[in-house]
Amino acid sequence: MTQPSHELSERIRGELLEMERIVRRALRAWPKAQKRFRGQQVYLDSVALNLHAFYTGVERLFELIARRVDHTLPTGETWHRDLLKQMGKDIPGIRPAVIDKESALDLDDFRRFRHLVQNIYTFNLVPDKMMNLIQTLPDLWAGLRAELLAFAEFLDDLQRSGRNNKRK
User: Fold this and answer.
1) Over the stretch 53-106, which tens digit does the pLDDT of each residue have?
2) Quick check: is 102 in a domain?
């Protein structure tokens, strides 16, 4: 690894705190985003922005893991999807899978939504299409948080065992 394992594990824990705030904000805004009233669009925008930020935060961690642990980051048009698949795979002798297959499938829906938010005007967002993401979010977040904390612990164990390879 190009950086000490402990540094990456601490970064994961710090990002998880930020993602927790993002998840809470999305869930708090959702009830008002569903109601038809004059300010509904502001709440829809808030939910969309926070769902976008949630996946962006997850992907940022996955990129760090790919660079610092796997020493390989996917390229090409499908790199975002390929990165997600990479995190769901065990790499013998390097690391266990960061996330399980169910998390990867659920996160892929968030990845696609993030792409949608980046490529359309927010006033075109449809609440019914966001509902599945919001309903999935609490359980996905609980599982993902546990998986990332377990991976951070794996990195700490790696550091403690002295197997932290400092290749450059």
Assistant:
1) 999 999 999 999 999 999 999 999 999 999 999 999 999 999 999 999 999 999
2) yes
Q: How many domains does the chain have?
A: 1
**Contact criterion met (CB below 8 Å) for 70 and 94:** yes
**Domain of 49, in residue numbers:** 5-161
- The answer to whether residues 60 and 77 touch, using CB atoms and an 8 Å cutoff, is no
Question: CA 15: distance to chain centroid?
Answer: 10
Q: What are phi and psi of 24, to 5 degrees?
A: -60, -40
| Torsion region of 93: left, alpha or beta (phi above 0 gives left; psi -120 to 50 gives alpha) | left
Residue 104 lies in a domain: yes
Is there a contact between 111 and 55 (Cβ–Cβ < 8 Å)? yes
Please give the angle made by the CA atoms of 118, 142 and 130, to the nearest 5 degrees.
35
**Residue 72: inside a domain:** yes
Entry pTM: 0.88
Rounded-to-integer distance, Cα 16 and Cα 146, Å: 10
Q: Is residue 168 part of a domain?
A: no
> How does residue 122 score in pLDDT terms, banded at 50, 70 and 90?
low
